Amino acid sequence: MQFQTLHSWEVTPRKAIAIQENLRASIVRQDRLGALHTVAGVDVGFEQDGKVTRAAVAVLSLPGLEPREAIIARRRTSFPYVPGLLSFREAPAILEALSQLKIAPDLLMCDGQGMAHPRRVGLACHLGLLCDLPSIGVGKSRLIGINEPVGEERGKSQPLMDSDELIGMVLRTRTGVKPVFVSIGHRVSLERAVEIVLQCAPKYRLPEPIRQAHRLASGK
């Protein structure tokens, strides 16, 4: 895979915030994606008390969700833990894992936020821009925003709002189980993102690409 060079990774947190502010205008919120035959789930874990970032990518087929390829990459952690700036801590290792793929995915699905982020540039947005690929953020927990209660049945959802701005959807992927937080990453509309997440989550709370990547990233 080829990546765009958008900025240096050797930056301070203040500079990282400025980079996010500049990248925000480049995010495409409409559907600009072709046929989806493969999807790559992305997740990150840490080793040696956070000194080493362990990035995992799991490529699955669509619509069958059969495993096609899996990669783990380890890289020295060079950016501190700062809420809202996790992409600067995690993305370098993720890009290293993506660079080793033999199968180029049609879409990235990230364990983390997309536009449901204080500056609207979460990990899914950042990776989508770097890779120039459609991307979706699927958070297990809320970073920002408020929503009305979500119905208990699979497929029920509620808008995730920050003031008067729609930043994502709170989606029930499994009846009676906690919902996930879906948001645009890049080149995918929110409506389409919700459809894809549901398609990729036939059995479990987490979409299968992310679930597989999480197992790799956590060593389980």
Name of the top-level CATH class: Alpha Beta
The CATH topology is archaeoglobus fulgidus dsm 4304 fold
Q: Largest beta sheet, briefly? A: 8 strands, mixed
Task: Tell me the CATH superfamily.
Answer: archaeoglobus fulgidus dsm 4304 superfamily
Question: Overview of this structure, please?
Answer:
- With 220 residues, the chain is an alpha+beta fold.
- It has a single domain, classed as archaeoglobus fulgidus dsm 4304 fold.
- It is built from five helices and eight strands.
- An eight-stranded mixed sheet has the order 3-2-1-4-5-8-7-6, with helices on both faces.
- The mean pLDDT is 96.
Task: Supply the key terms.
single chain, 25% helix, alpha+beta, 5 helices, archaeoglobus fulgidus dsm 4304 fold, 220 residues, eight-stranded mixed β-sheet
Reconstruct the topology from this structure.
Elements: H1 13-23, E1 38-47, E2 52-61, E3 67-76, H2 86-99, E4 108-111, H3 123-131, E5 135-139, E6 157-162, E7 165-171, E8 180-186, H4 190-199, H5 208-218
Parallel strand pairs: 1-4, 4-5
Antiparallel strand pairs: 1-2, 2-3, 5-8, 6-7, 7-8
Helix pairs in contact: 2-3
Task: Summarize this structure briefly.
This protein is an alpha+beta fold. It has 5 helices and 8 strands. The radius of gyration is 16 Å and the shape is globular.
